[in-house]
Structures are given as C-alpha cells and as structure tokens.
Specification:
Largest sheet: 7 strands, mixed
Strand content: 15-25%
Radius of gyration: 44 Å
Number of helices: 28
Helix content: 40-55%
Oligomer: single chain
Distance between the termini: 81 Å
Number of strands: 24
C-alpha cells in the first residue's frame, strides 16, 4: 500500500464469485473492500461513502459499467475517484470506450493477481501524488503572496538536498561544463581533508586527490586525462573509468569514476555530475582471485609434469621386464618350472601396469586431460577376445559366462576401442569376482541406428547372480577409491575401476547405471555413441600365432632403432632381428639424424624423451630436410613411456606416422611394422607351456580336495590368504605331502595368478561361509 492510511476499494461485478475472489485478494493487502453486485448499488454506495478506488465490471444487466462510470464522473463527489475496468472484452474499441468514460486503467480477464495488485497500487500512488501536487500548488500560490515564506521553503528544500548530498557514501559533486567545481559532498571532502571553500570555483583537474606527491609526470598525465573526459562529457557523453585517488596521509583507493551530463530544456549540457564509488576492496579481491587462478594453473602444470615423469619412470623399466620375459618365453628348450616363473613375471608386470594405468587415468581425469582416441575396429573381434580372456577365470569358479550379441549389432564401429575394452573388462571382472554361483552375462544391442546428423547408440549390459550391492553402497559406488564391503574382503583392487569406467562411458557419449539386489545380483548398463564403419584390417590371433620370420625373398628393409635406454634398445633389436631385417641403433636424436642422412632407413622407431636431442626435434629435422631435398619420406613410429594421449597428438602433428606406448607388446610391434612396410610374416603356433592343464586343475579345485590337510593348516592358509602374505602361503604349500603334489600345484597356480580370493574361499570355515551366504 502507498501509506499507512486504510484505503477503501469498491468492487462492482454481477458475478458473486468474482466479487468474493477480488475481496479475498485485496483484504490481505490491508485494503478495506466494499462489494456491489449491480451498477445501481455501486452508485448508491459511492455517493453515500466515496471510496478511494473503484474496480468496475463492464458487462452487467440493467446498467453496464460504462453508464456507471459516466454517472460517477458527472458528480463532484465522485468525479476524482480512479476507476479501473475489469472485463473479458479485449477489443480496442471497448478499451477506447472505457477511457472515454473516464477510466484510468483497463484489465483483461482472466487476469493475474499480481497484475491487479500492481495496477491498483500504481493508481493509488498516482492519486496520492496528484493530491500532493494539488496541495503543493496551493501552497506555492499562498507563498507567492508572502516572500518570506517562499524564502524559508527554499532554504528548507536546499537543506534537505544538502543533507542527502552529503550523506551519500560515494563521492559526488556538481561541475560546470568548463570543468569548474560548483559543489562537492562531505564524503569526498573528508577523504581529501579539505573544506568546500578550498574546492568551489577550482578546476576539477587541479584537485590534490588525483596525484601522488612529488610525481610531476603523473600529475601532468592525469590532468590531461581529466580534461579530455570533461570535454567529452560536456558534449553529452557519459564517461566512466577506473582511477586511483589519494587522501589524507596519501592513503590510496581505487574509484569507479563517472561524469554524467545534465541537459536543459533546449538540449544544452548545463551541468556535469562527477561521481566516484570506492571499489578498492573489489579490485583487491580480483587480484587475489587472479593470483589464486595463476597458482592453480601452476599447480596443474606441475601435476601434469609430475604425471608425465612418473608415467615415464614407471613404464620404462616395465617395458624391459615384460619385453624380455616375452622373448625368454620363446626360448628353447624351456623347463616347466622356468616357463611358470616367466608366466609369473609377465602376469605380475601386467598387473602392476594395470594399477599404474588406473592411477594415471584417474589423475588425468581429475586434471581434465583425458581425451578420446576414436578409430574403426572390429567389435566382434573385441568381444571374442574378452570372452577368451575371462572364460578361464569364470570356469575356475564354476560360473557360466555368456555373451549375448543381438544379430543386428554392427561388426565394425568407430569409437575409442581402448576405453570400451577397459570398461567391459572392469565390469565383467567385477561381476565374476563377486559371483559365487550362477553366472555372468554380457548383452550387446542397438539402441539407435546412426543418421546423417547423429551417431548410432549401442547398449551394453553386464548382469550377474552375485552378492549384490546394498542401497547405501550404491550411492557411492562410482566415487574414486570407494570399495564395497565385499570388495574390501576380496583383497584386490584400488577402488578406481568403476569411477574410471563411468568417466570413459561419459566421454563416449553415454552414461552408466546400476541396479542391484543384495544376495540376488547386480546389473550394470551403459550406452555409447559410435559410427558404423566398413570392414577394418584383420590380423592373426596373437593368442594362437607368433611371428617367426618373413616369407622367402622378402626385401631386406633397413630399420633404425633410436632409444637412449640400453635395455629398451636391446629389446627392440631382439624383437626385430629374427625377421632378418637390417638394423642400426642410435642413443639420441642427434646420432639418429647422422645415421638417417647416410644410411637412409626405411623405418625409424623413435623414442620421444632422450638426452642431447629428443625425438620431437629429430623428427622435425628429418621432415624439414626431406621437404627441402625432395627425399622420399622415411616412416617414423614414435615410442614413449608416457600414458598421455596428447603426446600421441604432438608426435603425429610433427610428422610421425604412428605411435606406440611402452611397455611394447611384440604383437603390436609387428602389427605396426606391417602397417607401414609391405612385410609378409611367417607364423608359428605358440607353446602353451603346459599352462592349460595346470589352469584347468586349478579351476576344478574344491573344498573337498583340501580336506586331506589338517584343519589347523587350513586355518593358517586361510589367514595367510586374507593377509595377502605370499611368503607364508608358499611355506605352508611346502608342507603338502608329495602324494598330494597336484594339490600344491593347483594352489600355487592360484597364488601366481593373484587369485588369493579363491584360496581364501576354499579354506574358509563352514560357519563363516554360512554367515556370508556362500556354498561349499
């Protein structure tokens, strides 16, 4: 409401519902409401006790709203009452008719309550102002007769203005368009330590607050800056800038300074209003935020550099360990024990590599450095390799493993194969790990075929009949380092797999969801976006065939191996030399450049991080000289121990033809060679080193098989498995009688394959197994 007085509103409408609605709307706002259901009753009420405002319906029987309004305006007692029409009639002619009848406003039904209240408030305010204006005019007319009263009123008005002027927290003044100060408020004067008499009549640019003492050059520059600003504002421009000012004791603040022009009735600028708001605190906050941002950027750069170095330092020795163990696997003759030891080295190295990759992947995700690497690949082949990889593990727990691929799923797609593979392995491995009976099923289907403007959508679902996940654990299952209760009991994992999987799925355009019922199982489902593509290149199954050499009469291609770490250089040479190709070695980019200039290799394996001259620089020099001398391009494959995908992009941008991450897999190395040189390989069947029979025996091991051992021994083995104490387990295995050597071999195989969870389950006491709902 406009003031504290009670405002009376007369509501006129022939519909009782409308009367009641408006009355209920207005009364809570403090208005006194009088209702009339017809035009005549409205006139009677208005003449008897004039309201402050009338809400009048147009369409009413006997006497419509227009007639009511005409009669109200014809009587002196009611002619000044503002009338607002409310009607369903929306035609312009009706509105014109209403305003001609004397209405001040016109509201269309149906209306918004807020609109009605706002318009009532507006008209009451106008009415109040009109009354005030009328009273003011009467007062002025009276004051004209008495000069003394006029002077007193003017002085009072000036005092009120001055009080407001001086009480403003910002600096404000009055300025002649020529730059001469006419007034300055007390806030500005107090800051400068001056009296108004010190500034009135002086040029604004000569005021001492603009300048730091003993700096004539700054004084001259600021004076010119202020003169230019005043000249622009005097021409009608609103000028605004940030500027430093100096107060008493040379205290410094930053002002948001402006000059606003004021025009007279002829359009001439007659006054300028200088205003300054203290923004020192805001500027300080901005500087602090900028420093914080720079510090955060520096920390991110340091983190990225640390990750790059850590990746290189961890993966470089793993390259030698895994590479030479692969070479030794093919040595002949090789005893069963030697083969088993090499298998342990390989599996341990690959397990360590998986953990390193998980941690580096999580760090790259947090730093926003993870990128997609999309390329065409054979989806069927990927699924087959996953099945072969995980079937043995499922068989070892007597679980069924099923892959259900819909018939219309495309064989060849384009997306990030590596990330899809990692997600599938994470989900399937978890499902097998936490399932004790029943099985695990992977279903793949099409959700949406691709269109000219959108990629297709594939769905993947991993369903198990395992222990399930509680409702509380489901809320946090995708958080980094989170493990369920059963996950912690399983003794394996970092708690990063699901978090990484979720991020990878999101990067591939989808989302991962989980449904789970405790003791019944879990279902993890995710979608990804992909393009359907033509058939991709196929390679021999690396699990079954091994490159043993080249076809007869193959060309003796020249291969240059550039690697600063001797072990890694020897490894590459060992891999390649059985092909019968010519090989030379270099320890850095500078040496590689000299050999390339004289020997002209067909292909270079170029390490990226090297002393003297790195691989990037060496590649840049080679490509430059090839272009200048119009020399046939040498194929260059970059090698790096870094896990960062941006290193691949940088190498390709510099002119490398391909890229290999360390640790280097023999099959991938030969695959890359065949991609860039016309090589035809000879293959030989890989030796399984009697591993399948051992694995099969380990997979069929049961609790009944272990009953030949004393109960105390079983309890000790169970505790050692729970504690992940390999040494203790091996000592206990030495106690197995020679007559039960097959039992020791099977248990040893489980330990070597990091399946201590199976050892713990096989040796678990019956009462504890019953408590956990496991079967013997």
């Amino acid at each position: 409401m406009t003031d504290n007085a009670i405002v009376k509103i007369l509501v006129v409408d022939d519909q009782p519902n409308n009367l009641n609605f408006l009355a209920n709307l207005l009364r809570p706002q403090g208005y006194k409401v009088q209702r009339a259901i017809s035009g005549q009753l409205a006139l009677n009420a208005a003449f008897a006790s004039p309201p402050d405002l009338i809400l009048l319906d147009v369409m009413m029987p006997q006497m419509d709203g227009y007639e009511v309004c005409y009669q109200l305006k014809s009587e002196a007692i009611t002619k000044d009452i503002p009338v607002i029409f409310i009607s369903v009639l929306n035609e312009v002619a009706e509105k014109v008719k209403a305003f001609k009848a004397g209405a001040v406003d016109y509201i269309i039904k149906p209306f918004q309550a807020e609109e009605v209240l706002a318009r009532i408030e507006n008209q009451l305010t106008i009415q109040k102002l009109q009354k005030q204006l009328k009273a003011r005019n009467q007062q002025l007319q009276a004051e004209i007769k008495e000069r003394e009263k006029i002077d007193a009123a003017l002085r009072s008005s000036e005092q009120r203005f001055r009080a407001i002027f001086d009480s403003m927290f910002q600096f404000i003044g009055l300025l002649h368009p020529n730059g001469q100060l006419l007034a300055m408020n007390q806030t500005a004067l107090n800051f400068a330590g001056l009296a108004e008499s010190d500034v009135v009549g002086q040029p604004l640019w000569d005021m001492p607050w603009w300048f730091e003492k003993n700096d004539p050059l700054e004084q001259q520059a600021k004076q010119q800056q202020l003169k230019d600003a005043i000249a622009r504002s005097a021409k009608g421009e609103f000028v605004r800038d940030e500027i430093e000012v100096f107060g008493t004791n040379q205290s410094k603040i930053v002002l948001d300074f402006s000059l606003k022009p004021i025009w007279d009735e002829f359009g001439q600028v007659v006054l300028l209003i200088p205003e300054g708001r203290d923004i020192s605190e805001r500027k300080h906050t901005e500087k602090e935020l900028q420093r914080a941002k720079e510090a955060a950027d520096a920390a991110n750069r340091a983190k990225s550099e640390f990750l790059a170095n850590m990746s290189h330092e961890l993966r470089t020795p793993l390259n030698a360990i895994l590479g030479f163990s692969q070479i030794m696997t093919y040595s002949d003759p090789l005893t069963g024990e030697q083969a088993e030891h090499l298998g342990i080295i390989n599996r341990s190295g690959e397990y360590l590599l998986t953990l390193i990759n998980d941690i580096l992947s999580m760090s790259k995700i947090e730093a926003g450095q993870m990128t997609l690497s999309e390329h065409p690949f054979d989806l069927y082949r990927l699924l087959d390799s996953l099945y072969e990889m995980l079937q043995l593990k499922a068989n070892g727990k007597h679980l069924s493993l099923k892959f259900d691929r819909a018939p219309d799923v495309p064989q060849h797609v384009c997306t990030d194969e590596s990330k899809l593979r990692q997600v599938a392995i994470n989900l399937l491995s978890n499902a097998i790990k936490f399932t004790e009976k029943g099985g695990v099923t992977l279903r793949v289907a099409i959700v949406q075929n691709p269109s000219p403007t959108e990629k297709g959508i594939l769905s993947f679902e991993v369903k198990d009949t395992g222990v399930g996940v509680t409702a509380d654990e489901l809320q946090a299952i995708f958080k980094p380092f989170f493990q369920t209760k059963m996950g912690r009991q399983s003794l394996h994992g970092t708690g990063l797999g699901l978090s990484i999987s979720r991020k990878f799925v999101q990067m591939m355009g989808g989302e991962i969801v989980v449904r789970s019922v405790v003791s019944q199982g879990s279902t993890f489902s995710f979608n990804i976006r992909a393009e359907w593509t033509a058939k991709t290149a196929m390679y021999p199954n690396s699990n079954k065939l091994r490159v043993s050499g080249l076809m007869p009469n193959s060309s003796p291609y020249r291969i240059l191996v550039v690697e600063d770490v001797e072990e890694n250089r020897q490894l590459l040479v060992k891999f390649i030399e059985r092909l019968g190709l010519e090989i030379q070695e270099a320890q850095n980019g500078e040496e590689a450049l000299r050999i390339w200039q004289t020997w002209h290799p067909h292909l270079i394996f170029m390490d990226i991080r090297m002393p003297v001259m790195n691989g990037y620089e060496a590649t840049r020099h080679i490509r430059k000289q090839e272009k200048e001398g119009q020399i046939e391009k040498t194929k260059i494959i970059a090698l790096t121990a870094s896990a960062f995908e941006e290193n691949r992009e940088a190498a390709i941008d510099l002119g490398c033809d391909d890229f290999i991450h360390k640790p280097i897999q023999e099959t991938l190395l030969f695959e890359k060679l065949a991609n860039h040189l016309p090589l035809n390989y000879l293959y030989s069947e890989e030796s399984d080193l009697d591993e399948s029979s051992q694995s099969q025996h380990a997979s069929t091991l049961t609790r009944e098989d272990l009953q030949v051992m004393p109960m105390v021994w079983l309890e000790q083995l169970h505790q050692a498995a729970l504690s992940i104490d390999d040494r203790r387990i091996y000592k206990l295995l030495e106690e197995i009688p020679e007559t039960q050597s097959h039992l020791g071999s099977a248990l040893k195989k489980l330990v070597n394959n990091f399946q201590l969870d199976l050892v713990a389950q096989l040796t678990q006491p019956c009462d504890e197994r019953s408590r956990l709902g496991l079967e013997s």
